């Protein structure tokens, strides 16, 4: 049965408006990043009269963007690796074994997602400062401290998500692996992890994107040498002026790793987000 013409036209209009809503901000960013500063500061022109690639060159000189890039890659990459590694073991234990305190552990993991991140800002700040004063380990203002901070957000969600995904994998695979002589750890890495690769990739993408774009904790827990990209973009705003064309150019450059990674892993991400919901 063919759909009514009114429905087809309504769908076309809705999709057109939705596409314009998504594409127009991107167009404004791209066009503004290709304009001289005086053109960006004035009245906005939908069709730029003069285009230049100078903002893409100046962004590396106005602020130490390359250093911020390295800090973000190190922090986001390390937070992703540790989050996925710990979540695999924790989720496997929750999914496959019964132990005392299992329900309390599961509820605790889920309850951490109920609180806004700003509630943890002051406690973590005091903990890091006191640890530094007592032991000399400088967590405050360091990459290591920021990595630990991001684990407090990504790890609970990663455990919860992988637990649901491991639950969807038949237990007969574990039993078959044990019959072939595999122990629990060997069965995990030889059977369960390959079968759960879409879910693991989805967790890794979530952890990386969370750490890559986080601003609140990065603005407090870092200094001039450990600043990340999300905070470093504020350096284009000075007391005298705001380099809007460089802000737009830097924002596009910063978005490239996340967009490329998302496009490459999109099919795994979709499979990982949906497969754990159906058994």
TrEMBL record:
Transmembrane feature ranges: 12-30, 68-92, 104-127, 147-166, 187-209, 243-265
Main subcellular localisation: membrane
InterPro entries noted in UniProt: BP-dep_ABC_trans_perm, MetI-like, MetI-like_sf
Protein source organism: Streptomyces flavochromogenes
Domain (ABC transmembrane type-1) ranges: 69-265
Coiled coil start-end: none
A Pfam family assignment: BPD_transp_1
Membrane topology, as annotated: Multi-pass membrane protein
SUPFAM superfamilies in alphabetical order: MetI-like
Family named by the database record: Belongs to the binding-protein-dependent transport system permease family.
Location in or out of the cell: Cell membrane
Keywords from the UniProt entry: Cell membrane, Membrane, Transmembrane, Transmembrane helix, Transport
Name the UniProt record assigns to this protein: Carbohydrate ABC transporter permease
